[in-house]
Write a structure and sequence with these properties.
Mean pLDDT: 84
Low-confidence stretches: none
Number of helices: 11
Shape: globular
Largest sheet: 5 strands, parallel
Radius of gyration: 17 Å
CATH class of the largest domain: Alpha Beta
CATH superfamily of the largest domain: Response regulator
Order of helices and strands: EHEHEHEHEHHHHHHH
Strand order of the largest sheet: 2-1-3-4-5
CATH architecture of the largest domain: 3-Layer(aba) Sandwich
Structural class: alpha/beta
Number of domains: 2
CATH topology of the largest domain: Rossmann fold
Oligomer: single chain
């Protein structure tokens, strides 16, 4: 099955480069290009995109607001947003994850990393490298403001977790991969994946990225 990709970046040269890379992959296809966030939202719907490569800083509507509109639209429930950043750890990345993005990738990434990132997010997995996640969370925890209070649905989700699932959620939020969690708890990676997936279902997280956000909202991380 071909993965349909929309590229949203206000720099035409970058869009051209991304298009050339993606078009060369047999399982990927570029179905639209947007120079601003509002056009990205329109194309996500009109082009029946699977993935939107979303720059954060764009005119008319920024990437965070555009991501929020896409992930908040039931008609676009199958669309995943992969944030593109100039720096892998960007001051707006956590806000983008809160808005519903499935992960992020630095614009300086290698070509193969970009293509694999698209495939990873398309599968429903989150693109949160352990190193990047740790740095991101460290910055988030260093800010003076505390995580916002969890709403009622988040509290219900938290109450539904088993002790093991809560433990997994905490470890995911610290940036550990499934393999690292398995080694730490002396479990198989498959068992860890099962617990993590069950936790995501119970708390209503679209993917691993949203599980990290959930952990912060509920005060599990930190």
């Amino acid at each position: 099955m071909t993965i349909r990709v929309v590229i949203a970046d206000d720099q035409p040269l970058l869009r051209t480069g991304f298009r050339a890379l993606i078009a060369a992959a047999p399982d990927l296809a570029v179905v639209g290009e947007a120079g601003d966030g509002r056009e990205a939202v329109r194309l996500a719907r009109a082009a029946r995109a699977d993935i939107v490569l979303m720059d954060i800083r764009m005119p008319v509507l920024d990437g965070i607001a555009a991501t929020r509109l896409i992930t908040g639209d039931e008609d676009l429930a199958g669309v995943r947003v992969l944030i593109l950043t100039t720096f892998e750890i960007d001051e707006y990345v956590f806000e983008a994850l809160r808005a519903g993005a499935s992960g992020f990738l630095g614009k300086s990434a290698e070509a193969d990393d970009l293509l694999n990132a698209i495939r990873t997010v398309s599968r429903g997995d989150a693109l949160l490298s352990p190193a990047a996640t740790r740095s991101l969370i460290s910055r988030f925890l260093a800010t003076p403001s505390a995580p916002p209070p969890a709403d009622e649905s988040a509290r219900r989700g938290l109450a539904a977790l088993t002790d093991r699932e809560r433990e997994m959620t905490v470890l995911v939020a610290t940036g550990l991969s499934n393999d690292e969690i398995a080694a730490k708890l002396v479990l198989s990676p498959a068992t860890v994946k099962t617990h993590v997936n069950r936790a995501m279902v119970k708390v209503g997280a679209r993917d691993r990225a949203q599980l990290v956000v959930f952990a912060h909202r509920c005060g599990l991380a930190g």
